[in-house]
From TrEMBL:
Calcium found in the keyword field: no
Stretches with biased composition (Low complexity): 64-87
Organism: Perca flavescens
Record-given protein name: Solute carrier family 25 member 46
Membrane topology: Multi-pass membrane protein
The entry's keywords: Membrane, Mitochondrion, Mitochondrion outer membrane, Repeat, Transmembrane, Transmembrane helix, Transport
Length: 421
């Protein structure tokens, strides 16, 4: 049977012969390059997973640093068959997907015990130790896991995934039914930026009741937890009951969700703005610090795929770190207000009792609102009270950065070994 595909079908997309881009080599995408060179590109590798590259629909994964117009074009150097080894395109996919998967797994799974202990420190105003260094934080985390089991360090992890899913879904729905842009173009205006930040704030408002329910599951002590009533969708049920005002009665100190809307939206917008600004600045500095190539196009060696993907992951890591450190006081106040009146019992963050049994403490704050919470923390606990549990945050990002560097080194060795065959 004769093939019905047109001659101009190249497997990635169809372009007619009258298209001016047909038969021409594609320009290489470089960070900080002009936006005009990034039209009519095809996203081929690696897959855009969370924690990996944030590719737009007009972006092309950088695969070669050879200037446009070199002999054979950029695609010829990577798509040419290599005898005795896998093609460079396959190695490129493997490298990008591997290092992105390591970043995703570390951020959402391995670092979860640090998130649990950090939140417990933030809401425990009775604690005598503020855990401003990772050494004291890790010691108490070890004592709690030894007394209650390793499982206690990963409590509430399922609900955090559900909150992430609700956040992504709400952002997509709001952007579809409103003119608020979900992604910013390369050349954005102040109106587009304001609409994009407003979308982040509205998304945080929609996910707020479920975030509060997930926060309770994260800091609740395993000693008082009822295993028979623990389910994967409990945070959804608890979030809906708090919105509708039904279910088990809470304390009269429970604040309405309307008093938490402004702090939650402000925290979400500021965190996104700070992390994005730091990420762009880090990528710009990395691009400026790279030495210029003086080799002719024919002699320019192909770029290492890890050198193309790792700078963006490192920049995202730095952006999230700066945003979490700057907004740590705001997050502390938000978590205390969200837990007030919920009859939550947490682990004592000062360690175990002298008799060997673990201590638990109730969260019995009496704040009137966001401003009263900030003034009360500063008056009773000092400026350091806003940074309770900062040592756990340092341990979280140190673990994330170390595993990213180890994954980069391992994948580099694997790529060199595969190309040497």
């Amino acid at each position: 049977m004769a093939s019905r595909r047109p001659d101009s079908f190249d497997g990635l997309g169809y372009r007619g012969r009258d298209d001016p881009l047909y038969g021409a080599s594609y320009p290489v995408r470089s960070a900080g390059g002009p936006a005009e060179l990034q039209h009519h590109h095809w996203v081929t590798s690696p897959p855009d997973i969370p924690g990996s590259r944030n590719l737009h629909h007009t972006d092309r994964t950088p695969q070669l640093e050879e200037p446009l117009g070199g002999p054979g074009g950029p695609a010829a150097a990577w798509e040419a068959p290599q005898p005795g080894g896998p093609p460079a395109e396959q190695l490129n996919r493997f490298a990008g997907f591997g290092i992105g998967l390591v970043s995703l797994f570390t951020e959402n799974v391995l670092a979860h015990p640090c998130i649990v202990f950090r939140r417990q420190c933030q809401v425990n105003f009775h604690g005598g130790c503020y855990h401003l260094t990772p050494f004291t934080a890790v010691a108490v985390m070890y004592s709690i896991s030894k007394a209650q089991g390793v499982k206690s360090q990963w409590k509430g992890m399922g609900s955090t995934f559900i909150v992430h899913g609700i956040t992504l879904g709400a952002e997509g729905v709001i952007s579809e039914f409103t003119p608020l842009p979900r992604e910013l173009p390369h050349r954005w205006s102040l109106k587009q930026l304001a609409g994009h930040l407003l979308l982040k704030g509205l998304t945080a408002v929609v996910a707020l009741p479920f975030y509060c329910a997930s926060l309770i599951e994260t800091v609740q002590s395993e000693i008082v937890r009822d295993e028979s009533s623990c389910g994967l969708l409990d945070c959804v049920r608890e979030g809906l009951t708090r919105v509708l005002g039904v279910g088990a009665p809470h304390s009269r100190r429970l604040l309405p969700l309307t008093s938490l809307l402004l702090p939650a939206a402000l925290h979400a917008m500021l965190r996104y703005a700070i992390s994005s600004a730091v990420q762009r600045a880090a990528l710009w500095l990395h691009q400026r610090a790279r030495p210029p190539r003086h080799d002719p196009p024919a002699a320019a060696p192909p770029a290492n795929p890890l050198d193309a993907y790792f700078p963006e992951l490192a920049a995202a890591w730095a952006g999230c770190l700066v945003a979490d450190v700057v907004l740590f006081p705001l997050e502390t106040a938000l978590h205390r207000l969200a837990l007030q009146g919920t009859r939550t019992i947490i682990d004592a963050t000062d360690g175990v009792a002298a008799g060997g049994g673990p201590l638990v403490l109730p969260v019995n704050t009496q704040y009137d609102g966001f401003s009263d919470c900030l003034h009360a923390i500063r008056r009773k606990e000092g400026a350091a009270g806003f940074y309770r549990g900062a040592g756990a945050l340092a341990a979280q990002y140190a673990l994330h950065g170390a595993l990213l560097a180890a994954a980069r080194t391992l994948l580099r060795l694997l790529l060199l070994d595969a190309r040497a065959r």
